[in-house]
Amino acid sequence: MNGATMVSSMGIGHARDHSWPSGLMSRLIGLMFLWLFIPFAPVIAASIKSVDYDTDRVVLRFDGAVNKASAFVIEKPNRLAIDVADAIAGSGGVPGGPFLSVRHGQYDPSTARVVLELAKPIIVTDGHFSEDGKELILSISNATVDKFRSAVTKGRTRFNSSLALASFGGSVRNSVTVPLGPPERGLPLPRVQGGRDNDRPLVVIDAGHGGHDPGAPSVMEGRQEKDATLAIALALRDQLLASGRVRVALTRADDRFLVLGERREIARRLKADLFISIHADSAPNADARGASVYTLSDVASDKVAAQLAIKENRADILNGVNLGGEASDVSSILIDLTQRETMNISSAFAGLLQREMADSVPMRQRYHQFASLVVLKAPDVPSVLIETGYMTNMDDARTLFSHDGQQRIADAIRKAIEAHFARRLAQR
Ligand code: ZN
Q: Ligand 1: distance of its center to the CA of 101 in Å?
């Protein structure tokens, strides 16, 4: 769904209250489930119910109290993004005046994002929450191109409600300005192995699936994708550590479940230089075999790639409940904000993987594919998903579940990783 269709029913300049969009309820339930499964998951306080504006301010209204938000501007095209903490994406807002479009998305399980495309350069000069926490009022003003650009460089302005402190009689400024920092999340981070110094690049290896999510079943009795992905991830970690050129962290080192958004958040919060998600494919046709590599795109390269995205993104769905809390329109917003450079680096790495794997691992003919995969959507970490082979093909399954096969796949990926960083070092 895009913003234009979402808000088309609303009058010019004034967003009226909106009934709950379909899917919101399931997202709410999904987030409750998330909370059950993951003790550090955030408490969701509210959802956005309207976005109003006039020439000098933007007002977001919520159906509950909110106390943290931030805003930042980005260029090409010029946009104002507003992130609301502990909130669910809602709706509201009509393009017009200074705004060409208004879009809503769930940036991560605890952050709702509104993106306003700007008809002219505009900056946020101040902001505060209403006393009951149900409104965020941002002051905006027209800016010169230079001033807008300096606001882009400055990064995020944060707004905190003074509600909690005010009740103790304190007088507190409503807003503080800080540079764009890492996302604030309560995720426990895995151990980084391979030295404490930050000189060596950091690779985060993500073993697909785990816990209650087995992934694809295998033609080999009782074997599941989640076990093959973990074995290959561990083999890759060990080889990388033995070689000593990079630092390594694993999203999971045992049989546990993580939602997709959390896997990529781990990479972001560790400031990883590369994120590699390990999977194994499945197909109705038992002859289908070979490895392939996926990088992020909002347009799938073909029908198979589109189906794969549905299949792998499904890891967050349990009994129809979306544990990841990703809004359906989230992809367009996130990809919009994704730096092109990140996608280019990911693609270049996919090329190296092809070169290194070709000798030792059977590959699909169309080796590098593009798909909208949730796990790859870290805007600032080059990311690839490797389908190491087909669980549904007997030859591939033998490779995927044998010690020798796992070592061979890990060895090829390790070589590609080392070539990647050697190349990047040379380019510096
Ligand atoms: Zn998978």
A: 35
Spacing, Cα 279 to ligand 1 middle (Å): 4
Asked whether residue 172 carries a pLDDT value surpassing 60, the answer given is no
Distance of CA 344 to the CA centre of its chain: 17
Residues 139-152 pLDDT 10s: 999 999 889 988 88
Dihedral of the alpha carbons of 366, 370, 375, 381, in degrees to the nearest 10: 110
Q: Which domain holds residue 148?
A: 46-166
Give the CA angle between residues 253, 261, 219 to the nearest 5°. Answer: 55
Length of the chain as a residue count: 428
> Both 308 and 359 in a single domain?
yes
Question: Residue 3: helix, strand or coil by DSSP?
Answer: helix
Residue where a domain stops, chosen among 166, 181, 211: 166
pLDDT of residue 392: 95
163 C-alpha to ligand 1 centroid (Å): 45
Same domain, residue pair 383 and 335: yes
216 CA from centroid of ligand 1 (Å): 7
Q: DSSP string covering 235-274, please?
A: HHHHHHHHHTSSEEEES-SSS----HHHHHHHHHHTT-SE
Same domain, 250 and 396: yes
> Burial level of 238, CB count in 10 A (0-12/13-18/19+)?
middle
Closest C-alpha to 53, from 13, 83, 88: 13
DSSP 3-state assignment of 55? coil
